[in-house]
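Example record for the data management plan.
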Amino acid sequence: MNTSRTIWVLIPVLVLVLLVGYMGVRNHEQATAPVHKRIPVYYWHMWTSEWGLTMNKVVDDFNASQTKYEVIPLQIPYGESDTKFLTSVAGGEPPDVMTQWDDAISGWSQEGILQPLDTRMTPQELEFFKNGTYSGIHNNGWYKGHLYGMVMGVDVYACYYRPDQFKAAGLDPNHFPTTLEELTEDAKKLSVKDSSGELTRVGFLPTGITNFAPSFGGGFWDPATSQVTLNTPANVRALSYIVGVDNYYGMNNVMRFNSSLKSQNGVSWPFIDGSFSITLDGEWRIKQLEQYAPNLKYEVAPLPPPAGGKAMASGTAMNYLTIPSGARHPDGAWAFIKFWSGLDHPANSAKYNADFYWLPSSPAMEQSPDYQAFLKQHPHYKTFVELAASKNLGVSPPVPYQLYLKDRILNASDLAERGTMTPEQALTSLEHEIAVEKSRRKELGYDQ
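Corresponding structural encoding:
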């Protein structure tokens, strides 16, 4: 057989096959769109299991609420979401709307990957967004004066505590400490060691500077000056407090105790088995407690402030909704975002926050019948709702190196908590690392 001739004969066939495949991909919209010719809006998210079912309910309700658009959801694995998203953008086939959980909004905005959302708002919507929603909602997702990520869910952190262990330690189970100093002293009484001196229960073990800095009046972004704040006196005090508790118990003892704990998730959460009397954690734990320890008696209270600190303060974590720059149907994406976020009708979308066990985004949502019914059924959420409404919440620095900054902050905190560096040394090193990164970006022609 003449190999060269065979190849030339097969080329038209291969071209035809590729063309048919290409047309199949291009006709995917028409193939999946409903018969009444709605405009398809492709939505990527990472929710699975029961959360996926709740997400599908939001989509179904939106689709039933109007006849112009049809949202078509696609669940993608969280660990692969950023890679798949960036690949889709590079290939010119991004989704119309996507959920984002990481602090990448500013970096993607700088690269022109995301569309601004505030320019789509009517004057009334913008007024409500800036003044009618909680600070954690309207202070995040911005970059250089434009909103690129609509916060759908904000996580805040409060103290879960065990009244039974308070009572056993001779403390008033109906009184939670009102200052961080009082909490620290009570925690010492709640801690238990075995006959060999090994810790078997710790009253309170603070960890992670991002959740404690706001209570000390610190944090990593100053809105007044639009500057990243790192090695500040307030941040040093916060990290020094964490390290001071570790030193009280002994670094080696703390490390051995932590290594003995089970997984931090679900039924293995150490608070459930009594390893911690008090622990700082997010609102999502309430659902886990209902599922895995329905008979456990516990209470929730805000982290009390230290002397001279701020009350009702907390670190935060965000879920965003975004519209990629290459979205084919951004108007439909925006209609879906408005519907779900409650920008126009917060009371109507309150039921979705309740179904997701999320915190409300505004007083109007909180006071809605659906969310009030949720709070009546889950009263421990009230503490988190009060925190969500506070103005003393941490803000994710809106800089294009957000992910790098977050990683280095966590590393600095870990170095100090392990005793490798003092708090002052760790934050000084952090400040140097960020200065080097900013200089590198400047040399490459990037914004800082």
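Summary line stored alongside the record: The first helix runs from residue 3 to 26.
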